[in-house]
C-alpha cells in the first residue's frame, strides 16, 4: 500500500512539473504517460506506445530529461534507453541484498 501511495504522489508531482510546457505540452504528456507504463524504455517503444512520430517522441523525451524526470542510460546517440529513475527507485525499495 505504501508503495502505491508513493507512486501516486510521484506521478502527481511530476505531472505538475509538466504544466506550462506550451505547444510541446500534449506530446510530452503522451510520452510521460508511456514512460509511466514502461519506466525503462527506448525512443522506438515510446513512439509506439504514444502514437507519436519518432522525431516528436524524441523531442518529448528530451523535454522530460530537461525536467529531470527521465534519464538516458546508454550514453550513445542511437538506440538509446531511458529510465524513469524515481519510479524505479520506489519499486526497488526493500529489494536490496542483506
What features would you describe in this structure?
With 98 residues, this protein is mainly α. Helix content is 59%, strand content 8%. The protein has five helices and three strands. The chain has helices spanning 2-17, 25-37, 43-50, 54-66, 85-92, and strands at 40-42, 71-72, 81-83. A three-stranded antiparallel sheet has the order 1-3-2. Strand 2 and strand 3 form a beta hairpin. Helix 1 packs antiparallel against helix 5 (85-92) and helix 2 packs across helix 4. The longest helix has 16 residues, at 2-17.
Provide the descriptors you would attach to this structure in a database record.
98 residues, 3 strands, globular
Low-confidence stretches: none
Count of distinct strands: 3
Classify the secondary structure makeup into a structural class: mainly alpha
Note the beta-strand portion: 5-15%
Fraction of helical residues: 55-70%
Distance between the termini: 23 Å
Q: Average pLDDT value?
A: 92
Radius of gyration: 14 Å
Number of separate helices: 5
Largest sheet: 3 strands, antiparallel
- SSE string, helices as H and strands as E: HHEHHEEH
Amino acid at each position: 500500500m505504501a508503495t502505491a501511495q508513493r507512486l501516486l504522489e510521484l506521478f502527481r508531482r511530476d505531472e505538475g512539473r509538466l504544466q506550462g510546457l506550451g505547444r510541446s505540452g500534449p506530446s510530452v504528456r503522451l510520452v510521460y504517460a508511456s514512460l509511466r507504463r514502461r519506466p525503462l524504455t527506448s525512443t522506438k517503444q515510446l513512439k509506439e506506445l504514444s502514437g507519436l512520430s519518432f522525431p516528436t517522441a524524441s523531442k518529448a523525451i528530451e523535454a522530460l530529461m530537461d525536467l529531470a524526470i527521465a534519464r538516458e542510460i546508454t550514453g550513445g546517440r542511437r538506440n538509446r534507453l531511458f529510465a524513469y529513475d524515481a519510479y524505479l527507485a520506489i519499486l526497488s525499495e526493500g529489494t536490496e541484498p542483506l
